[in-house]
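User: Could you check the structure of this?
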Amino acid sequence: MAEGDALAGLAARSIALARVAIGVSATVAPGLVGRLQFDSSAQETRIVVRMLGARDLALGVGALLAARHGSPGLRGWVEAGGFADGVDAAAFLRAQPGDARRRRLTAMVAASSAIVSAWAARNLDD
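Assistant: Sure, the predicted structure tokens are below.
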């Protein structure tokens, strides 16, 4: 296995683990995550946070299972997660209400994850 392939695999698994942690947090404690991320713990915010948490949990678990089984499908999971992060980054940059600094920070984290995911997907060993 080439060094780039090993690093891409490590990046893919690391992002997947982070995605699982974020997904579990958002699903179990949507009010807390809503306050931290959106400055709101309203019922509507908790519903959306829980939905996004389930999405991240599914993407993370899917990637981890694909990695565990040595599946060539890992690339697809990484690409899907990166796409979701790219959409999240764009959505946060376009959002109007709330703390602009918080929105930019969240967008930066999501964009970074999208970029690393794209790199990892491109460099994963088939």
